[in-house]
Structures are given as C-alpha cells and as structure tokens.
C-alpha cells in the first residue's frame, strides 16, 4: 500500500534541502564558501520546484483522486523513477551546473511528469471527472506539460544563439511562468474545489465556467509579461494587461462567492486552517496586483532591471502563496500535522526575508545605500525557514 504520509514527509525533506541551499547562497555574500554560485542556484531552484512542490502536489492528487483504484504498483514504480531523477539532479547540479548528467536527470524528470499526467487523467474515476476540481487539475497538468517546452528549447537555443540571447531568457521565463501560474496555482485551486465539493458546496455551472476560462485565458495572456524586457510593441503590453485583469476579476468573483456562502468556513476548516487560507488569499491577491502593475511600461522596465524585485516576487509566490497553501492542504488531509509554532516561525522567516529583499530592490530603484550588515541580516532571516522545517521534521506533533 502506498504511504502518502511518507511521501508528504519526503516532499518536506526536499523543501528543507532547497532551503539549506538557499541559505548557502545567501551566506556566500558574507563568507567565502567553495561553491560555484550559479550551479547551486540551479540545484536550489530544481529541488524547490520539483522536490517540494511537485512531490507535495502529486501526493495530494494521488490521495484525493487515485487512491483505492488499484494503481499501487504503477504509482510505486513512477514514484521510484521520480526519486531517481530528483536525487540525480541534487547530486549533479551543485557540482556541474547544466552538464551531461544533470541534463539527463532533469530530462528523466520531465518524462516522470508526463507519466504522472497520463496516469492521473487516464485512471481518475469517471464520477470525479465530472467535477469542477478535476477540470482545474486537468488544466494544471496540461500547463505542467506545456512548461516543459522551455527546457526542451534550451538545448537548441544554447547551440544556435547562445545563453546571452533573448530567446534563452524567454525559454526560462516560459518554463517558470507555466510552472508557477499554470501548474501550481491551478492544481491548488482544484484541490480547494475538491474540499468544497466533498462538503457539498459547488459553484453554479455558469459561474464556474466564467471563472475557469478567465483564469486560464489570464494565465496564457500574462505569459507576455515575461517578454516585456524585449521592449516589444504596445500591443503586447495591452495583451498582458488584459490577462492580469482577467485573473484579478476571477479572483474577485471567488472572494464574492466566499462572502455569499451560506455555510461558514468554520464547518469545513479548523480555525488554524482558516488562518492559513486567509494568508494564502491575501498573498495571491497581492501577487496578482503586482503582476498587473508590470503590464505598465515603467513597472515592466523596473521588474526586469532590478533583479531583487524579480527574486522577491518569485519567492512571494513560492514561499508564500504555494507553500502556505500546501501546508494547509497537507494538514487538512492529515498527511503532515502542521503545528502553530512551526507556522509562526515560518511566517517570521518569510515576511522578514521578503521585506529585506524588497528593501534592496527599492534601494536600487531609488538609489540609496543599504544599511550596514544588510547581507548578514538576510542570512539570519533566511536561516529561520530551514530551522522551522528541521523543527517540523525532527519534532513532529504527537497528536
């Protein structure tokens, strides 16, 4: 029998590894460490996105939609294949960067993601395929597959145009956009709808259709935000802005429906879980507002010229929107018990590091100097997150 609890705990362990690698990167600004910075960046990002988020999401999706369907052997083989690829990336990227073996392992992971997508869509029971939650998750898996066009294109771009070309950056942004905004956000939305459906709360068909298509069209159109650094024609600014507006509108509709629910959230989630849900809702609202702002030429230029704003935004989405939502659902489905002390410590680390990163971005923007000890403060704030994860993994709550 598949132990989804163990799989969830392994995903959390990958998060710890990614957090430690991130801490090493920030410590390298204050202390000489014998690493190749960009190699560790590659390892940090791959393990964060593919070890923590991918593993946590697929574990949840297996438990909600596929558990009990007689797929234990197939899923176990897929799980072992995925771990082989992840461990391979973990032990090659930090030492070689993008080279033969790291490329082989990352390519194997792409095949693992295709395998999971096929398994999920083929074997989800017919009754569940009629639900809104399945529609969202099917779209998420399509985005997961689409995102892989970016890595596939990189080889040809490197050979013909080189890493300094705009197309190289566009391929990376393509991958990140459809990972963050397509696969992750749509999968999390699908899990939320699944929870509501299991509690006999369903959106009216017409409302769901308008929200669903607005979000998906928004995801496609906002990709063009990623190419605004090329200073294209004004039409692309308008298209990407329209995508941002569509997503904000869909979010506003969901917030409005939330207020109109006759059944209070307290009958579905605990007070602690409602707190996490509020955090996630606030963070995604801010994310979408920032996203819309970058459709304006001034802010588009700012986002592409001040690296700290880009890093801050990506971490806002990853550590904030995505990770806090995952904590909520893993706790709700009893895959990992998330204690309040862990969340408090994690939020201190998240809020503090985001504040420090955006402060540096603002300093670059307005051209004022950083305070003394800036990088040391960033290291100390960053250390809070792996400490919180160690606390959760080593001292899990007993009941």
UniProtKB/TrEMBL annotation:
The UniProt record lists the keyword Transmembrane helix: yes
Residue stretches spanning the membrane: 46-66, 78-95, 101-121, 133-154, 174-196, 208-229, 235-255, 276-300, 312-333, 345-368, 374-394
Residues making up the signal peptide according to the UniProt record: none
Keyword annotations: Membrane, Transmembrane, Transmembrane helix
Keyword Transmembrane helix set for record: yes
Residue ranges the record marks as coiled coil: none
UniProt-recorded name of the protein: Uncharacterized protein
Organism (species): Cerina litoralis
Lineage per the UniProt record: Bacteria, Pseudomonadati, Bacteroidota, Flavobacteriia, Flavobacteriales
């Amino acid at each position: 029998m598949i132990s989804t609890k163990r799989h969830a705990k392994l995903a959390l362990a990958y998060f710890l590894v990614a957090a430690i690698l991130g801490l090493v990167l920030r410590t390298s600004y204050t202390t000489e460490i014998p690493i190749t910075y960009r190699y560790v960046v590659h390892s940090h990002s791959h393990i964060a996105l593919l070890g923590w988020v991918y593993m946590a999401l697929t574990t949840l999706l297996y438990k909600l939609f596929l558990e009990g369907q007689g797929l234990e052997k197939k899923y176990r083989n897929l799980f072992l294949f995925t771990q082989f690829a992840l461990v391979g990336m973990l032990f090659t990227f930090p030492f070689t960067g993008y080279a033969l073996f790291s490329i082989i392992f990352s390519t194997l992971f792409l095949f693992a993601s295709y395998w999971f997508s096929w398994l999920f869509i083929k074997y989800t029971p017919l009754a569940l395929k009629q639900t809104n939650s399945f529609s969202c998750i099917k779209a998420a898996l399509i985005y997961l597959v689409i995102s892989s066009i970016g890595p596939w294109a990189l080889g040809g771009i490197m050979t013909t145009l080189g890493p300094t070309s705009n197309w190289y950056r566009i391929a990376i942004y393509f991958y990140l956009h459809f990972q963050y905004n397509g696969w992750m956000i749509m999968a999390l939305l699908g899990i939320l709808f699944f929870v509501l459906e299991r509690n006999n709360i369903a959106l009216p068909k017409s409302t769901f259709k308008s929200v669903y298509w607005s979000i998906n069209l928004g995801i496609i159109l906002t990709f063009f935000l990623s190419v605004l650094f090329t200073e294209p024609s004004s039409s692309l600014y308008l298209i990407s802005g329209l995508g941002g507006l569509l997503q904000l509108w869909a979010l506003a509709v969901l917030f409005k429906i939330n207020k109109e629910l006759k059944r209070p959230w307290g009958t579905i989630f605990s007070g602690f879980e409602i707190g996490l849900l509020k955090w996630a809702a606030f963070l995604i609202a801010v994310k979408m507002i920032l996203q819309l702002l970058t459709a304006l030429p001034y802010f588009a230029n700012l986002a592409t010229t001040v690296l700290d704003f880009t890093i801050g935004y990506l971490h806002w989405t990853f550590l904030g929107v995505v990770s806090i939502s995952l904590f909520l659902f893993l706790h709700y489905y009893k895959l990992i018990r998330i204690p309040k002390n862990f969340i408090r410590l994690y939020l201190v680390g998240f809020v503090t590091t985001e504040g420090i990163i955006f402060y540096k971005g603002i300093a670059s923007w307005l051209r004022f100097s950083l305070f003394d000890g800036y990088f040391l403060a960033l290291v100390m704030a960053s250390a809070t997150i792996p400490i919180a994860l160690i606390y959760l993994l080593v001292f899990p709550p007993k009941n």
